[in-house]
């Protein structure tokens, strides 16, 4: 017997029990894990359902993708071609500078000036607790309910005239 054959035989007898032990442990683990593997299979099958549904529209995706690609290439080509022609013929228009509106600083300064130059109305006299009714007022309206409502000076007998609006404002 040469040394190589002896080494093979020795390793077989040394490692074969370890190999058998690992094989049986593996079979036991597979038997215990079988229900979980079955459940995982159905969960993955359910998770793949949306992708299987979308796969039915594969031709539509290809068509839309090709149309998108053609549109982007055509648009980019037209953009760069028109930009080149505008630069070649010097057709770029310079934007006119528009007068800027009021800035915050100018607005605050105007408001401060306005508040300084604004005159305030004189304060009102205090209201007394007992109102005084003048005798002329009392005499004038004392017989208000007894009056004839359709007298000549009454508003009910006069016509309210409306003016025609001749302005162009359209109100």
Strand-helix topology:
Elements: H1 3-47, H2 49-54, H3 58-89, H4 104-117, H5 135-141
Poorly predicted segments: none
The first-to-last residue Cα distance is: 121 Å
Q: What's the total number of strands?
A: 0
**What percent of the residues sit in helical stretches (DSSP H or I)?**
55-70%
Give the DSSP E fraction (strand runs of 2 or more residues): under 5%
Going by helix content, strand content and strand pairing, the class is: mainly alpha
Mean pLDDT: 80
Largest sheet: none
Rg, nearest Å: 50 Å
Tell me, briefly, the overall form. Answer: elongated
SSE order in H/E notation? HHHHH
Number of helix segments?
5
Question: If you had to describe this structure to a student in words, what would you say it looks like?
Answer:
61% of the residues lie in helices and 0% in strands. The protein is mostly helical.
Put the structure in a nutshell:
The protein has 171 residues and is mainly alpha-helical. Helix content is 61%, strand content 0%.
Sum up the structure in keywords:
171 residues, mainly alpha, 5 helices
